UniProtKB/TrEMBL annotation:
It catalyses: (2R)-3-phosphoglycerate + NAD(+) = 3-phosphooxypyruvate + NADH + H(+); (R)-2-hydroxyglutarate + NAD(+) = 2-oxoglutarate + NADH + H(+). Keywords: Amino-acid biosynthesis, NAD, Oxidoreductase, Serine biosynthesis. The keyword Oxidoreductase applies. This is D-3-phosphoglycerate dehydrogenase. Transmembrane segments: none annotated. The chain holds residues 1 to 312 of 530 of the full protein.
Length: 312
C-alpha cells in the first residue's frame, strides 16, 4: 500500500483517481508546520502540495520513504529542487491545468485596475455615490508589455489583442516567427518599460527574474504605467514600486502575489489607494483546481507504480 500525504487544500474531485486506487491510502493533513511535517513524513511515499507548504531539505531528509513530490500547480519555487535531486526524490508539477484560469485573473486585475473597480465598490457600499474619483482609462489602443511569453503570458497577450491593445513581449525563448503569428512585437525589457501603458509579468521567480523590475526600470519608465503581477512576488521590487507610485511614475498596480505570503498586515500594498490586491487567487477556480489535481494524481500514481510518467 502506497501512502500519500496531501498537505495543502487540493480538490477532492481531482484527487479521486488516488482516493479510488486500491493500492493507495490518501491522508489529508493541511496547515502543518515544518516540525510537524518532519515528524510524520517518514510514513509517506508521496507528498502532494500546492503553494503553502514549503518543502525544505529537512522535510525531505526526514521523508525516508518519499519517492515523489507532486505540486498541484505550476511554480515549484516552494520546493527545494536541489535537495530533491540529491535525495533522488522526483518532483512533478501540473503546468497546463491552471493556464486559462490564471490568465483570466490577470486580465480581470488589469481591467479592475484600469477602472478602479475595487476602490469604487468599497465607497459605493458605504452609501457614498462618488462618480468623480473613479474616472478610468480604456485598454483599446494602449501599449501592453508582457514579460514572459509562456503558457499564461501568451494567453494574456491574445486577450489583450482582442481588446485592441498593441502588445510588446519579452521572453528569451520566444522566436520572432511565433511572436509574429501571435500578433506580438518582441521587445527588450528596457523598450517595454519605456513605452508600455500597461505591463504584466508571467515568468517564474528565478535568480534572473528576481527584481527584474526595480528602481533602475522605474527611473526610465513611461509615466502613468499600470502594472499587474499575477506570477510571483519578488519579480517586481515591492518597495521600489510603492516609491514609483508615490512619485507619480506608476499610475497603479494590481498584485495577486507577494514576496512573503501572506504579507504582514502593515505591508505598504495593503492600504495604498492605488494598489489593488488579491490573496494568490490566480489559479483558484473550480476548473483549474480539478485540472491540476487530476494531473498530479495521475503522475504520482504512475511514479509510485513504476510506470511511465511525464515530467514537465
Ligand atoms: P511557463 O513556464 O509556461 O512560462 C514562463 C515563461 O517565462 C517561459 O516562456 C520562459 O521562457 C519565460 N521566462 C523565463 N525566464 C525569463 C526571463 N528572465 N525573462 C522573460 N521571460 C522569462 O509558465 P506559466 O504557466 O506561464 O506560469 C508563469 C508564472 O505564473 C509562474 O511563475 C507560475 O508559478 C505563475 N503562476 C501563478 C499563479 C497564481 O496563482 N497567481 C497561477 C499559475 C502560475
Ligand atoms: C501556481 O504556480 O500554479 C500558482 O501558484 C497557483 C497555486 O498553486 O495556487
Amino acid at each position: 500500500m502506497y501512502k500519500v500525504l496531501v498537505s495543502d487544500p487540493i480538490s477532492d474531485m481531482g484527487l479521486q483517481q488516488l482516493t479510488d486506487a486500491s493500492d493507495v491510502e490518501v491522508v489529508k493533513n493541511t496547515g502543518l508546520s515544518e516540525d510537524e511535517l518532519v515528524a510524520i513524513i517518514g510514513q509517506f511515499d508521496a507528498l502532494l502540495v500546492r503553494s503553502q507548504t514549503k518543502v525544505t531539505r529537512r522535510i525531505m531528509e526526514a521523508g525516508t520513504n518519499l519517492k515523489v513530490i507532486g505540486r498541484a500547480g505550476v511554480g515549484v519555487d516552494n520546493i527545494d529542487l536541489e535537495a530533491a535531486t540529491s535525495l533522488g526524490i522526483v518532483v512533478i508539477n501540473a503546468p497546463d491545468g491552471n493556464t486559462i484560469t490564471t490568465c483570466e485573473h490577470a486580465f480581470a486585475m488589469m481591467m479592475a485596475l484600469a477602472r478602479h473597480i475595487p476602490q469604487a465598490y468599497m465607497k459605493t457600499v458605504t452609501g457614498e455615490w462618488d462618480r468623480k474619483s473613479f474616472v478610468g482609462v480604456e485598454l483599446r489602443n494602449k501599449t501592453f508589455g508582457v514579460l514572459g511569453l509562456g503558457r499564461i503570458g501568451t494567453e494574456v497577450a491574445k486577450r489583450a489583442i482582442a481588446f485592441g491593445m498593441n502588445v510588446l513581449g519579452y521572453d528569451p525563448f520566444m522566436t520572432e516567427d511565433r511572436a509574429e503569428k501571435l500578433g506580438i512585437k518582441l521587445a527588450s525589457v528596457d523598450e517595454i518599460v519605456r513605452n508600455a501603458d500597461f505591463m504584466t509579468v508571467h515568468t517564474p521567480l528565478t535568480k534572473e527574474t528576481h527584481h527584474m523590475i526595480a528602481k533602475p526600470q522605474f527611473e526610465v519608465m513611461k509615466k502613468g504605467m499600470r502594472i499587474v503581477n499575477c506570477a510571483r512576488g519578488g519579480i517586481i521590487d515591492e518597495l521600489a514600486l510603492v516609491e514609483a507610485i508615490d512619485e507619480g511614475i506608476v499610475a497603479g498596480a494590481a498584485f495577486d502575489v507577494f514576496e512573503h505570503e501572506p504579507p504582514n498586515p502593515d505591508h505598504p500594498f495593503l492600504k495604498h489607494p492605488k494598489i489593488i490586491v488579491t490573496p494568490h487567487l490566480g489559479a483558484s477556480t473550480i476548473e483549474a483546481q480539478e485540472n491540476v489535481a487530476i494531473d498530479v494524481s495521475e503522475q504520482v500514481i504512475n511514479i509510485l507504480r513504476n510506470e511511465p510518467f511525464k515530467n514537465a
